[in-house]
Design goal:
The complex is a heterodimer. Chain A is α/β, with parallel strands linked by helices. Chain A contains eleven helices and 14 strands. Chain B has a two-stranded antiparallel sheet. Classes of the chains: A alpha/beta, B mainly alpha.
Chain lengths: 292, 251
């Protein structure tokens, strides 16, 4: 069973500051969702509401159709893994992992296997771990929680590239083995883009856009080919990014392409590819942009 | 921590697990205190006669340590346990169970210590005096007297445990939470003073504010006051835990 997520007219204030403003959002169960946003956009706040870390100032937060706040049947099957994890730093890694057994679904054997695989030493204290190992410990606890809604909030910070890659693959394997709802909050957009099914972009405390990945990718295109032909094709379109290598150029545009332009591209020997999620994200959250 | 098989019982299991883990963690400290309480008078006796109870000092320092440990547990464990999918109600219940068990355990240890010390002092012909005051010396003259004197310690530890948890919860709840110290510390010291047959114990600059406040209270009045203060403290702590947002992590 996977948990769906629903926020209805949710506002959360820190003092006079609105971290989330009137957010309404529904996330389908059994999917991997990406939660994207600039620093301070409200991603962590949104996740903290879903895990009952905080209570909204106004509105309703439902997980699996039920209020999440103080609901033991729900929160015991929801896991929010924050950057660096929520640990007692003076505990050993082994003891920290064993604390996960407070969850009925926690898989201790799996956690210990992952600790061995990712070389997180069980006998060391948490405060003796490097940042990367600590992040991995947090990720292990999240994976082994076997929750119905698992949220990773920038959990990859400090991990090196091979470890991040192995973590994403393990996350995907666990997801395929046991379908559940996953929310990944990250700034490393291109790294996770291939794993995501739906994307939510949060900006200034509001949901800017929520759609499946294909819909995002069809919002623009990348032209690759001879520089002159690419420039001619991109003329008049909103350019998000450019790259040039010798006579070959790649331009990302934030516009849907009509049939005529596609035909012109084919005739000029220019390849059309999907727009990169990161380029699109930068474009959509650009403060100078209007009419988002 | 043992595997919680059902959600219905995990708060109870956590409460008892906190006790067993605490006993294991502090076993060395407890042993060191026992050894010191015996060794120091033995060493001092080489130069002078012993006419003060070392265990009284240890048992009273223990009150402060109980409060600090209890406050530390609430402050540290609240975010960890919420992150492990526990509700705040479960956490409050677990902490309540731990407070009762931990106070009973340390209290039983204190009582056993007073009785053991009475046997030791009796054998060596020393005087077991918790207090050598300006007005009167309080000397424990028999095992029955030692038991009577020490019997309030479990309740006193529960009082300090509750105070510590209230302070820990308040400081976690908000940055200005330390202000709760202003009412909690004097009330705790005053009620402890009422419970004890000796004068108020602690740093002079602190206890002078409460000395004499509860003078003349009978034992049962003091016990009733302690129970009321503990109940109010427990209620306030629970209220704070139930309404505490988990703090954002520092970058």
């Amino acid at each position: 069973m996977s948990f769906s997520v629903s926020l209805r007219d949710v506002t959360l204030k820190y003092g006079d500051t609105e971290a989330l403003s009137d957010v309404t959002l529904t996330l389908e169960a059994g999917k991997i969702h990406g939660l994207l946003g600039r620093n301070g956009a409200g991603k962590t706040t949104l996740l903290s509401l879903l895990a009952a870390f905080r209570k909204p100032t106004a509105g309703e937060v439902l997980v699996d159709g039920r209020p999440v706040w103080e609901n033991v049947d729900v929160v015991s099957r929801v896991a929010l893994i924050r950057e660096g994890g929520d640990f007692d730093d003076t505990d050993t890694v082994e003891s920290t992992i064993e604390t996960g057994e407070l969850r009925p679904s926690f898989d201790l054997d799996y956690a210990l296997k992952l600790a061995e695989r990712f070389e997180v030493p069980l006998d060391k204290k948490v405060n003796q771990l490097s940042r990367g190992k600590r992040s991995m410990l947090a990720a292990i606890c999240g994976l082994a929680a076997r929750a119905e809604l698992t949220m990773f909030d920038e959990v990859h910070l400090g991990m090196d590239a091979p470890t991040r890659d192995a973590f994403y693959k393990e996350l995907l394997a666990e997801y395929m083995d046991r379908p559940h709802t996953v929310i990944l909050s990250t700034h490393l957009i291109d790294e996770v883009a291939n794993y995501l099914e739906e994307v939510v972009i949060v900006d200034k405390g509001r949901v800017l856009r929520h759609d499946d990945v294909e819909a995002f990718q069809s919002m623009g295109a990348t032209f690759t080919g001879p520089a002159d032909a690419v420039d001619a094709l991109a003329a008049g379109l909103e350019v998000l990014a450019e790259q040039r290598l010798g006579g070959t150029k790649s331009v990302t545009v934030a516009s849907r392409l009509d049939a005529a332009r596609r035909e012109r591209a084919a005739a000029a020997g220019v390849e059309i590819g999907p727009v990169g999620l990161q380029d699109l994200f930068i474009h959509l959250t650009n403060p100078d942009r209007t009419g988002a | 921590m043992p595997k919680a098989h059902t959600l219905a019982t995990r708060r109870h299991k956590l409460g008892t697990a906190l006790l067993t883990e605490s006993v294991k963690y502090f076993a060395g400290w407890i042993l060191a205190v026992i050894v010191l309480a015996v060794a120091v008078p033995l060493i001092v006796s080489q130069w002078r006669s012993i006419d003060i109870s070392a265990w009284y000092v240890a048992a009273n320092i223990g009150k402060y340590l109980v409060a600090i440990i209890a406050g530390g547990y609430v402050y540290t464990l609240l975010p960890i346990l919420v992150a492990q999918g526990m509700t705040r109600r479960e956490i409050a219940t677990s902490m309540g169970i731990f407070a009762l068990l931990w106070s009973a355990f340390i209290g039983a240890l204190a009582i056993a210590g007073f009785l053991g010390e009475h046997a030791l002092y009796g054998a060596l012909d020393w005087r077991q005096a918790p207090q050598q005051g300006e007005e009167f010396d309080l000397v424990i003259g028999s095992f029955a007297h030692a038991l009577e004197f020490a019997a309030i310690y479990p309740l006193a530890y529960l009082l300090y445990c509750t105070a510590g948890m209230l302070i820990g919860a308040a400081i976690y709840r908000s940055d200005g939470g330390w202000l709760v110290l202003l009412p909690v510390v004097p009330i705790t010291l005053a009620v402890d003073d009422a419970l004890s047959r000796a004068d108020a114990w602690g740093p002079a600059w602190l206890v002078r504010f409460v000395s004499g406040v509860v003078e003349g209270w009978g034992v049962w009045s003091a016990v009733a006051a302690a129970v009321v203060v503990i109940a109010i403290g427990a209620w306030a702590t629970r209220h704070l835990i139930l309404n505490s947002p988990i703090r954002a992590k520092q970058a």
